[in-house]
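check this:
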Amino acid sequence: MPVYKAPTGDARFLINEVLRLQDYAALPGFAGATPDMVEAVVEEAGKFCSEVLAPINLAGDQEGCTRHPDGSVSAPSVYKPAFAQFREAGWSTLSVPEEFGGQGLPHVLGMLMEEFMSSANQAFGMYPGLTAGAISAILAKGSPEQKAKYVPKMVTCEWLGTMNLTEPQCGTDLGLIRTRAVPQADGSYAITGTKIFISSGEHDLTENIIHLVLAKLPDAPDSTKGISLFIVPKVLVNDDGSLGARNAVSCGSIEHKMGIHGNATCVMNYDGATGYLVGEENKGLAAMFIMMNAARLGVGIQGLAQAEVAYQNAVKYAGERRQGRALTGAAEPAEKADTLFVHPDVRRMLMDAKAFTEGMRSLCLWGALQVDLSHKAESEEARQTADDLISLLTPVIKGYGTDKGYDVATNMQQVFGGHGYIEEWGMSQFVRDARIAMIYEGANGVQAMDLVGRKLAQNGGRAVQAFFAIVDAECAAAKDKPELASLAAAVEAANAELKAATMWFMANGMANPNQVGAGAHHYMHIMGIVALGSQWLRMGNAALSALASGTGDKAFYEAKLTTARYFGERFCPDAAALRRKIEAGSEAVMALPVEAFATA
């Protein structure tokens, strides 16, 4: 039976000693995040996810979702009591503004809950998780009446929300959508069309589902400039907030998927359903990006989360399974064989996982802090810098985080040997569930192109220059500390490779955009390495301070320093090879005629 224990100790270290959330107490929303409150949230969130959600993960995967003849869908039966506990405990309200029924706490705590929940039970966590993106879009673009009518019950998860973007003929290219919105005399719109791959599209966990649907007006431009966004409730909501008639929206089928079986990924049919415009006509793209960016950060968390739970199970197995002897001689002569921990290649996989998960957790929580600071920092300059940084790094968190998260999950399966391929051990579920995160909310190649095609050049490169400067300053400050000097040099070298790759794009991309496209994925990975390296410098500094003070768990902090050194030795050198791949250009990538790809 798979196990999961929320990494609450690491979370406290990051919040209290690395991010130092207490230093922001003067900012709106941070005053409530007292040390006692943070401790309570971290511990109780970890307990709920470890003790309530994790034990039903395997059962939910095995049972899956059921579509009934009338088009209704049942979520796994084991989810229903757990969802009631989740809702009653108010876990969905952590970071939502108080005026809409939330607790108004920093986004850092909300993102930490997302990680714990995704590790414990990713399919379950997607039901409330997608609602957060829908709430963000309504709060940003909705009318006061729409906010009052829909958001409070979405915040409390009495109602859940979805994002309806993709259609059979279009995935990333949303200019191809065919769903139509016809204006009605009462100011509403009749929505007609089919959407596919809609996570949490239909279920029985709540009495209503608030669908956010992209559609085009009859006279709209047939491109992304003609997209509008609509609220389309599963059940219409009366002016007094009570539920009215069933809307003309239904689940045509449930997708048969590789993983996340506990989540109802639906084909949704809109047959003249009543919808309400969010924002302005033909301005839905901006609202869509609000949803997408929130979702992309959540998906990046899923990459970390599946890596973490797979890692925990691999560590447990490696400590129990006895196979062979240590290369340097029997570690336990009294036993017939040593544990897997004596083998360097097993250690390599486990150290890769430890270095990634702890570094990625730090990056995600630091990113969540930037979200908060982009709205709440004291100066306009500080707010702008935070917004620049999280905008730049969102595709990295999503793309690099899920690429590496999947790699870690498969390597942790490898630690199990043949048992990793057997369903009852649970490792295959982690691999299957991790795989989707590289695809949805914009496949990782799209994330890479967003990074190099849009984010680098925005505002004259202001964001990437700020990122370079931050990393350079952290490296310079760490060089005189013997325990961090090698890591600082490795991160500095990786950052230099990132700068060189950026300049190569600038010199070669305008004349031939394929040069950028062919190297975008490699560039995203270099930035991921540098971003995690920067976090390891921060964690290393915090660990040194704790050791110098003589407080806390000495072994914990020493392990941080060893893992930091490992990251510098084993991750950072990849940046040089990736830059050389970028500079190889696009000629060989694009040279073959299409017919040459067919097998002879």
